[in-house]
Automatic annotation (TrEMBL):
Keyword Oxidoreductase carried by entry: yes
Pfam entry (one): Fe-ADH
Domain spans labelled Alcohol dehydrogenase iron-type/glycerol dehydrogenase GldA: 10-180
Organism superkingdom: Bacteria
Keywords: Oxidoreductase
InterPro entries: ADH_Fe/GldA, ADH_Fe_C, BDH-like
Protein name, entry field: Iron-containing alcohol dehydrogenase
Protein's organism: Suilimivivens aceti
Ranges of residues in domain Fe-containing alcohol dehydrogenase-like C-terminal: 195-392
Length: 394
């Protein structure tokens, strides 16, 4: 049966070639006049995108300051730095030129400037909720996290190695500019980690034990098949514009909640288990998900068998005439083969890390703490379950 739901995806998407030229005009339209432009390492500088964006801001005579150097698994210190600049410069609009890490930092700074008297990290510790947030928008350079339309922001406290998410509609971006051309410079590992993350945002919403709708499943299955097909194309043809476009749009649709309407909010334990890996070992998010998911799936599939069977048949094309359990396991195996075909790991060794038993316990305890009462839908996980999944993946 379909659960009640609310679908709220207010972000204006401006998609296609040369759309970055509209950045300044759009910021004006959404009331921005003093802009903080955020970016990561040097990829947006090298590609020329940052210059194009700045030109567009100048055309609209917008005042702006820049803050670069945001790293993947972005740090809290950078957020505080951005908040300081924002206060001193009277910033009223945050523009991220980059991927999930840059957009999530922009959201965190926007929360910080919305309530400047409070410590923004409290949101990520879930000790209070945000009341105000400045407007955020992005010029996206990597199809992956879906932050360009999502309500999430994920920040790592580099002192405690805690990687934590805060979700709130207040930070849904005003607009997202997506020109697939600018994703052609991505290294293959980042492209494929991105494709994995996109699939996982849909998979997390698919493997649930509560509330389902045919239309939602059909959208999810179509999205997953399309991402697999185009991820394979990009593995050998990184310059294929159409494949880049398919993946880029899929990235937003996978995480703007469309593929979860009518279910119980999703499982999301693979993500929570991965965030601990990101905090402790600084791994690439999508690759970390690929390394965890097969172990999670083999651990929980019996508790969510009809969904695993449906997935095996409708997404992975399994045609075995065997039992439901056999079909489900073949589906998981086919998924591993797919990950390998695009150069993704399927366990922690292939990811290049080998946590000790002590580190596994520490990650499981962190995961339990960060999860609160939301510890899964396919199967609710307790501490021992989490330890077991990390051990299986190790
Ligand atoms: O820093 P630069 O030089 O830009 O290089 C980046 C970075 O090294 C590079 N890159 C990005 N666009 C490029 C490019 N290189 C060449 N050409 C381009 N066009 O890619 C690397 C990764 O960038 P990052 O922003 O970290 O990637 P992604 O979008 O995968 O974001 C990952 C972060 O988002 C979080 C993850 O946990 C992780 O911290 N997530 C955020 C979510 C959200 N806000 O809704 C949901 C996700 O589940 C996820 O947890
Ligand atoms: Zn993700």
């Amino acid at each position: 049966m379909a659960n009640n739901f609310e679908y709220f995806s207010p972000t204006r998407v401006v998609f296609g070639k040369e759309t970055e030229k509209q950045t300044g005009k759009l910021i004006r339209e959404y009331g921005g006049s003093r802009v903080l432009v955020l970016y990561g390492g040097k990829s947006a500088v090298r590609s020329g995108l940052l210059d194009l964006v700045k030109e567009s801001l100048k055309e609209e005579e917008l005042y702006f300051q820049e803050l670069g150097g945001i790293v993947p698994n972005p740090h809290l210190d950078k957020v505080y730095e951005g908040i300081e600049i924002g206060k001193n410069e009277g910033i009223d609009f945050l523009l991220a030129v980059g991927g999930g890490s840059v957009i999530d930092t922009a959201k965190a700074i926007a929360y910080g400037l919305g309530e400047p008297e409070k410590d923004v990290w409290e949101l990520y510790e879930h000790t209070r909720k945000a009341r105000k947030c400045l407007p955020v928008a992005s010029v996206l350079t990597i199809a992956a996290a879906g932050s360009e339309t999502s309500r999430s922001s994920v920040i790592t406290n580099e002192k405690t190695l805690e990687k934590r998410a805060y979700d709130d509609n207040l930070a849904r971006p005003k607009f997202a500019i997506m020109n697939p051309e600018f994703t052609k410079t991505l290294p293959d590992y980042q492209t494929e980690s991105g494709c994995t993350d996109i699939m996982m945002h849909t998979i997390e919403r698919y493997f649930t034990n509560g509330g389902n709708m045919e239309i939602t499943d059909a959208l999810a299955e179509g999205l997953l098949r399309t991402v697999m097909e185009n991820a394979k194309i990009l593995h050998t043809e990184p310059d294929n514009y159409d494949a880049r476009a398919e993946i880029m749009w899929a990235g937003s649709l996978a995480h703007n909640d469309l593929t979860g309407c009518g279910n119980d909010g999703g499982d999301f334990m693979s993500h929570k288990l991965e965030h601990e890996l990101g905090g402790m070992f600084d791994v690439t998010h999508g690759a970390g998900l690929a390394a965890i998911w097969p172990s999670w799936a083999r651990y929980v599939y019996k508790y969510c068998l009809p969904r695993f069977v449906k997935y095996a048949k409708n997404v992975m094309g399994v045609t075995s005439g065997g039992s439901d359990e056999e079909t489900a396991l073949l589906g998981i195996k086919a998924m591993e083969e797919f990950y390998h075909s695009i150069g993704m790991p399927v366990n922690l060794k292939e990811l290049g890390i080998h946590p000790t038993e002590e580190q596994i316990r520490e990650m499981a305890e962190g995961c339990l703490k960060a999860s609160g009462s939301s510890t899964g839908s396919a199967k609710k996980l307790d501490l021992q379950d989490m330890i077991r999944i990390y051990q299986m993946a190790n």
